[in-house]
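PT: before anyone asks, these are the final sequences, not the draft ones from last week. 553 residues across everything. Please model them as a single complex and drop the result in this thread when it's through.
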Amino acid sequence: MLIKLTGGKIYDPENGTNGEVRDIYVRDGKIIETPLDERVDAEYGLQGRVVMAGAIDPHTHIGGGKLTIGRLMMPEDHRGHEVSHTNLTRAGCGHAVPSTLTTGYRYAEMGYTACFEPAMLPANARQAHIEMADVPMVDKGAFAMLGSDDFFLRQLSQSQDFEAIKDYVAWTFHATKAIAIKVVNPGGISAFKFNQRALDVDEKHTHYGVTPRDILVTLSRAVKELGVTHPLHVHGCNLGVPGNVETTRKTIEAMDGLPLHLTHIQFHSYDTEGDRKFSSGAARVAELINGHKNISIDVGQVLFGQTCTASGDSMRQYGNTKAASPKKWVIMDIECDAGCGVVPMKYRDKSFVNALQWAIGLELFLLIDDPWRIFLTTDHPNGAPFTCYPHLIRLLMDRGFRNDMLQKIHPDAAASSILGSLDREYSLYEIAIMTRAGPARSLGLKDLGHLGVGANADITVYEDLPDREEMFTRPVFVFKNGELIVRSGKVVHVVQGATHVARPDFDGGIEKSLKKYFESYHTVAMDNFKLGDEEILNGGQGSIKVQPVSARV
Ligand SMILES: [Zn+2]
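LR: through. Structure below.
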């Protein structure tokens, strides 16, 4: 079947196309060259409309136990947010922590065609993938969490051969079907269980004697040498702590040029000036990012309203329980190897702290120069539910709107922020980089995030409306692998996305020591711990896309 998308304005940064009017041809789910004299089976007239690749969310919590806890813990998040079934779609509910099926429909209805779960604990990988299999419409992938697990910390503290550590990292990719490696509060989740309540970059874990710096440098180097495209994905030390801008500086400088992705940087950009000892560190962080080309970030923007924070960082989430709204929370250990904290949160524009968090996120967006190294996220659902993205895009593209919103927040927060003086407005081209081309390049997704020949025909078409929130809320058409899945912001066809993984080479000899370790310390045997491809393929329900790695030493 040959499909022609005629006359749209194309924004395809990976191929340098900035608003040019041209046609796109699709056959068998892929974008193809202009064919010679062939009959077109379906044509869509896109004159005056904006065409981009399907959007990619590189950091959104869509699978794994903590979402299930959030859903269980917050019946108030279900009420008033019920979604009925239709002939096509199934019922669901939820605003901050929507049910799996609803999550998939809502992403597709906003023009997203791929989503990545950034905190898959290896011991929970099976459950995370099962849950993601229940999210329809979008491609997905997951980042396996290392950095607080006992096997790795033993390796590091015993100064084991770096090659063995690399093998363990690569083994983890295979065993958990991951596309990247994540570290959450490096060593801190473990240190919390040894009664430490903070762990800064150069502080020692009292039991293992290693520091977050050791952990980050070792794992970043391992990921790089294994040839995995996405750099080590890091939720740093001291999340949410005033003054953590210093921690962020130390973390960036510790890398000494090694690649690193710092996630939800907004929560790591706090200074201690002013009467309340809480101020914006955005300008300092932006200067650091602008000066360090080895660092990429996503923002983790806070937007006002009810949400639910969910994180592997049990140390910092324990600190956040004081602010829980409604007043309930769960902090738990997982298999002695990791943790999890789920704390409902209501961000209020009249709260000084929340208002300043909002402003800090926007300052970062506007002060960081290179859109290829900054990705648009709310760290769903931590800063806000992902359904707020169109509102966030308008804040970035429309200075008048942004300044109107700035008038509504806590006056002291507005007064202490430089936001009102920032003139920058993002262009459609920059939005396309930040929400498509950038994440695809960073994650090493060769066939997503662009509209060149050979790309998957994941294509989103918008009406070019002056109100960018309205525009990005309801795409006219969304295609997934060449099939029309959304029309006028509503699902018209339900599909299942692929699971993207990376499979770096390693020496299988590591399994000898791992097997023994599992027998001594784990509740499951090593062979049962590892996921098989067939669990994701699930009789044809799912599919696996192996993205290339290129070993570099
Ligand atoms: Zn996150």
